[in-house]
């Protein structure tokens, strides 16, 4: 008596392997895309933190020279460049001139560090009205995934 020959599949077929590879590829591409977005958002959060720290930096300088800040020596528009008046003999200059020089030097260093940490388009402004001051830090966050490319941090302080 002869046995009937049954053909049972043994092993994995080529089509099944191809389908598995396609599914794995799509999944891996999704993971890579999520990782890229996470890095962009992480960089954006870092820039926001730097902007807040830089606003506190100029706040500390203003608290050191509180009277100069109240008198408006720290006032600076967003598109204005700070300048220092050359004082030939600082020891013979008035106290107000020295405070103004400190304020202008602080603003120059602040703007320089903003550009170094947040990019060349980063800038900042200070507007004091007596003891109430508004500090703005502005930078380009074009690599972020949500929102506008120009970001602002506003900090209001009372000296």
From TrEMBL:
Domain of life where this protein originates: Bacteria
Pfam families noted in UniProt: N_methyl (PF07963)
Residue intervals passing through the bilayer: 12-34
Keyword field: Membrane, Transmembrane, Transmembrane helix
NCBIfam families attached to this UniProt entry: IV_pilin_GFxxxE, type_IV_pilV
Protein name, entry field: Type IV pilus modification protein PilV
Species in which this protein is naturally found: Thiothrix lacustris
Gene coding for it: pilV
């Amino acid at each position: 008596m002869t046995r009937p020959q049954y053909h049972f599949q043994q092993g994995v077929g080529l089509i099944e392997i191809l389908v598995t590879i396609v599914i794995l590829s799509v999944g891996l591409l999704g993971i890579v895309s999520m990782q890229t977005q996470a890095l962009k958002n992480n960089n954006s959060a870092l820039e926001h933190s730097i902007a807040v720290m830089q606003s506190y930096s100029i706040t500390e300088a203003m608290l050191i020279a509180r009277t100069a800040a109240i008198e408006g020596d720290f006032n600076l528009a967003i598109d204005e460049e700070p300048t220092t008046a050359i004082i030939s003999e600082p020891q013979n200059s008035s106290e107000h001139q020295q405070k103004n020089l400190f304020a202008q030097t602080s603003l120059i260093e602040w703007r320089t560090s903003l550009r170094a940490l947040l990019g060349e388009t980063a800038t900042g402004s200070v507007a004091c009205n007596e003891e109430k001051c508004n500090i703005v830090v502005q930078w380009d966050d074009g690599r972020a995934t949500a929102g506008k490319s120009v970001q602002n941090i506003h900090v209001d302080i009372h000296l």
